[in-house]
Amino acid sequence: MVSLKISSVKGFMSSLLINSVFDHFWFSEGEVVTFARFSFDGALNRDYYSSDEQEILGLGKRRYVSWAEIKPYLHSVIRGKRTPVSCKLVLLLSDENAARVIRRSGAAVTPEQVGGFFLNIRFEKKEVHLVTGLSMKIFSLDKTLEHAWDQDVKTFLRLHDIAWEEE
Length: 167
Description:
Elements: E1 3-6, H1 9-17, E2 26-33, E3 37-41, H2 51-57, E4 65-66, H3 67-78, E5 86-92, H4 95-105, E6 114-124, E7 127-136, H5 144-159, E8 164-166
Antiparallel strand pairs: 1-7, 1-8, 2-3, 2-4, 2-5, 5-6, 6-7
Helix pairs in contact: 4-5
């Protein structure tokens, strides 16, 4: 786990809410506090779609909505003349991208043993903080995978010109 403070809040929020930088992540959950508290659950509701729609949309075994799908709804709550009091978002890697991280890390685990690679985003007091997280379905003292995920997040941010400092 690593905690990062984003250097440019405006630039990061633009990357998050307007550009497609984070669109390949899944959205787990979120909360935005403005004049009221808005909570979002990213669990994919399969009952909303017919079986034909599920096939056309390629939902497969997907468990969550993508950030690209829910971003407009969150943006509509955040957008305005006043910034939110706070905002907490939890993104996670898709199964496909998680498998890539596992392979590249060289860790002795299978994708089925990993619960998820998380990116927690917190906006509070006009600052943005990111915290990485890894959920394992098994017990392991080996931190290889956790360190690989931390490095991948830092690399991802650098590739997208998102400046940060480690806390």
